[in-house]
């Protein structure tokens, strides 16, 4: 049977990469073992596939139709960790990869690494273009000065105050001018 396992640690949990790249999955062992098995679960094909077994002597045994150019296993000198290297990645390599060890006729699996291979990686949100079908979102653009104190910002009250001052000045000058005209008229009429 298969058992969740405390005998080994598998990293990373997720890998997202592009076609033709290569990647690596690490399996660290807590106890000594004769070697590590690597499996792939394909959600698409609903299939659990044996890929490769690597023993402590550095010998590898590949599963049926598994390419030795694509998969290779590298062991640390202490044999406390093994890494699965996958090259020439293709979307058909998508799946969850498991390292496992055998102990007392039971297979202990790692936590699994979800591998997703895409022809093109998704772009960051900044560079994506919004589809034409979306309704335009009205945007209110405020200048830094205008956003300081809302409608009472200097950009608003300075021109208003200047306008009011000009009007008052004009009113004062007009009133003064009319007052002088009235005085002249009054003087003219009283002289005669």
From TrEMBL:
Biological process terms in GO annotation: adaptive immune response; regulation of immune response
Its membrane topology: Single-pass type I membrane protein
SMART domains in UniProt: IG (SM00409), IGv (SM00406)
Transmembrane segments: 156-179
A GO molecular function held by the record: MHC class I protein binding
Subcellular location: Membrane
UniProt-listed Gene3D superfamilies: Immunoglobulins
Keyword match Signal: yes
Superkingdom assignment: Eukaryota
InterPro entries with a match to the protein in the record: CD8B (IPR042414), Ig-like_dom (IPR007110), Ig-like_dom_sf (IPR036179), Ig-like_fold (IPR013783), Ig_sub (IPR003599), Ig_V-set (IPR013106)
GO cellular component assignments: cell surface; membrane
Record domain Ig-like: where: 12-116
Protein name as it appears in the record: CD8B protein
Species this chain originates from: Dryoscopus gambensis
Lineage, broadest ranks: Eukaryota, Metazoa, Chordata, Craniata, Vertebrata
């Amino acid at each position: 049977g298969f058992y969740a396992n405390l005998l080994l640690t598998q990293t990373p949990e997720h890998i997202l990469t592009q076609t033709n790249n290569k990647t690596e999955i690490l399996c660290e062992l807590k106890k000594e073992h004769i070697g590590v098995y690597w499996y792939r679960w394909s959600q698409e094909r609903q299939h659990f596939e044996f890929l490769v077994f690597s023993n402590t002597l550095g010998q590898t045994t590949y599963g049926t139709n598994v390419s030795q150019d694509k998969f290779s296993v590298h062991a640390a000198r202490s044999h406390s960790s093994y890494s699965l290297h996958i090259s020439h990645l293709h979307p058909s390599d998508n799946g969850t990869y498991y390292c496992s060890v055998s102990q007392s006729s039971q297979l202990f699996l790692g936590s699994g690494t979800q591998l997703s291979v895409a022809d093109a990686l998704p772009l960051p949100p900044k560079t994506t273009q919004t589809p034409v079908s979306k309704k335009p979102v009205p945007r209110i653009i405020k200048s830094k000065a205008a956003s300081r104190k809302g409608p009472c910002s200097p950009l608003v009250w300075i021109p208003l105050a200047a306008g009011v001052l000009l009007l008052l000045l004009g009113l004062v000058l007009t009133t003064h001018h009319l007052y002088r005209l009235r005085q002249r008229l009054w003087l003219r009429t009283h002289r005669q």
